[in-house]
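Field notebook, page 164. I keep forgetting to write these up properly, so this time I am using the form the group agreed on. The chain and the ligand, dinuclear copper ion, are recorded exactly as supplied. Prediction of the bound pose follows.
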Amino acid sequence: MQVHRFEKVWLGAALLLIVGFIATVAYGSVGVGVAMVDDSGGQINAQAVQSGNTGTQFDDPGVVREGEDHYAVYVVARQFQFVPGSGDDPIRVPADAKVTFRVTSADVVHGFAVVETNINTMVIPGQVAEVSARFDEPGTYGLVCHEYCGAAHHTMGGSVEVVP
Ligand code: CUA
């Protein structure tokens, strides 16, 4: 049987589209370069995160100075708060410094997004999501969980205070 040349071209195009769709689902919009499923910070035992004995900075989450111009923020997400970040415990970082957020979950899948920035990642139990940014402008930025995580998902949020 002979396959017509145009038919081959269209078959190829259809295959490319399917691969493209799968890639879009897995990695978000093409070209942004931020994987939606982010384990760039490595693996971690979610049960140990829950009980606070990971032997890592996640046992005492917060802001840690890592260098002259570099801060790391360890955040534990759990139903229904960010520690630190929620309630009267905002994440406080300096303006115009490199800030690396390392976020993990103690229970279910959460989201971690800082409003008005491109800081946006899924937070998956067992994995550490790592996102770096630099805040040019001091101010208060909203923090939201954007993955449905249970009955009080819509209340899960907080703030990031960028100080001069
Ligand atoms: Cu946590 Cu939605």
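OBSERVATIONS:
- Residues 80, 110, 145, 147-149, 153, 156 surround dinuclear copper ion (CB under 6 Å).
- The helical segments are 5-27, 46-51.
FOLLOW-UP: compare against the apo run.
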